[in-house]
Amino acid sequence: MVDNKLAASQTDIGESSNLAQLCLSYSYNFKDQKYEDAVNILACVAQISIDSSKRRFCIDVEDEIKRIKRLVDIKSNGYPLFWLNIRRGFNKNLINSKIKCPMNILYGYGLPKLQTKTQTIPFADFFVPHKAPADKRMAKKVEEFIQKYSIKLGEYYATEDDSYSEYLLLRNDYDELIDDIRRISLSKNSVGLVSWLINRAFMVTPHINSKCDCISTKLNKNKSLLLKVLYDVNPKIFLSCFR
């Protein structure tokens, strides 16, 4: 219950902060006090979201965010140009080029690439390969589960109006993903399964790396998700794959 509340609070904090920035952008362009009022209200909403895991408030954060969205009429006003950096794959047709705001100026600046003299440590230096499982059907099943969840994740973040209820469904799907993988991979040889999956995702060992062109896997596109899933399934086994 507490975990779900903390996760929901993170979503509410991000949603209220983004909406506040949008209202602030409107305030530079439209002479209506409601936009500045919305910014002030959302600052309180974000603070309530931060504290909601420790105490209760007589306000429904989700409803308040929805109310302000209706109040500021995002559909008619559109989004400022910098929103293309806020949401990955955001629909450019929703951008209102007439909106002028300081964040658009920052968006126009090209961020310099990070320069470092320190070389990146190769993955192979801290990866511990274990003997691959003789039957790789279970590992392929894990790949399939992760790929399906990744598609749902992509669809969720592609929406222009994220909602709390959709987030809870996504969270529920993730919990089911973990349960499904635990059911099929809890065995003495599961360390080999975990090691093999990591190896396929990051192409670590020379044997796997030499076959990168012919290996049929999409784990390389879901590396972060894979690592989180494997750790959540069994932290001890996951950590045994690293020095």
Question: Can you walk me through this structure?
Answer:
There is one protein chain. With 243 residues, this protein is mainly α. The protein folds into two domains: 10-108, no CATH class; 123-239, no CATH class. It is 61% helix and 0% strand. It has helices at residues 2-27, 33-51, 61-72, 74-77, 83-86, 102-108, 137-158, 164-185, 190-202, 206-209, 223-233, 235-239. The chain is elongated, with a radius of gyration of 23 Å. The protein starts with a helix and ends with a helix.
Based on the model shown, name its key terms.
243 residues; 2 domains; 12 helices; elongated
Largest sheet, in brief, is:
none
Could you state the order of secondary-structure elements as H and E? HHHHHHHHHHHH
- What share of the residues does DSSP label as strand, in percent? under 5%
> Structural class of the helices, strands and pairings?
mainly alpha
The residue fraction in helices comes out at 55-70%
* Cα distance spanning the termini: 35 Å
What is the number of independent domains? 2
List how many beta strands DSSP finds: 0
Radius of gyration, CA atoms, in whole angstroms = 23 Å
Contiguous uncertain segments of 5+ residues: 1-7
Tally of separate helices: 12
Estimate the mean pLDDT confidence. Answer: 79
Shape: elongated
Give the SSE layout:
Elements: H1 2-27, H2 33-51, H3 61-72, H4 74-77, H5 83-86, H6 102-108, H7 137-158, H8 164-185, H9 190-202, H10 206-209, H11 223-233, H12 235-239
